[in-house]
Design goal:
two-stranded antiparallel sheet, 111 residues, 4% strand, mainly alpha, 3 helices
Length: 111
């Protein structure tokens, strides 16, 4: 819905357009950052007992995000917002699923 022009096409980071208008205005938020941090958060939460997993997962996600700025495909704010969305949505979904599973176990009657 938020249509921002990519930095390889303009010098102005405030070039936005209305939703569903122009296909080349696809910078905000960064889908690569969103996906990378979503996967990193999933691994970090799933393997939290292994101290090295969160470090590696978030490092790879950060490198992926920074590469998008380096390649001039996104503005810094695009990757920050994309990373935040990926991280918090994944964290919320996993926590909700864990709560749901706990409720199932406590309500369950074992014969």
């Amino acid at each position: 819905l938020i249509r921002r022009e990519r930095p390889d096409r303009t010098e102005n980071s405030y070039n936005f357009t209305t939703p569903f208008r122009k296909n080349d205005y696809t910078s905000f938020p960064s889908g690569h950052s969103n996906t990378a941090f979503s996967v990193a958060t999933g691994f970090a939460m799933l393997y939290k007992h292994k101290k090295w997993v969160p470090w590696v997962a978030y490092s790879l996600a950060t490198l992926t995000s920074l590469s998008r700025v380096y390649q001039n495909r996104h503005w810094a704010s695009d990757i920050i917002i994309g990373a935040a969305i990926g991280h918090y949505v994944t964290k919320t979904v996993i926590r909700a699923e864990n709560k749901r599973n706990l409720r199932k176990k406590t309500v369950r009657i074992i014969p």
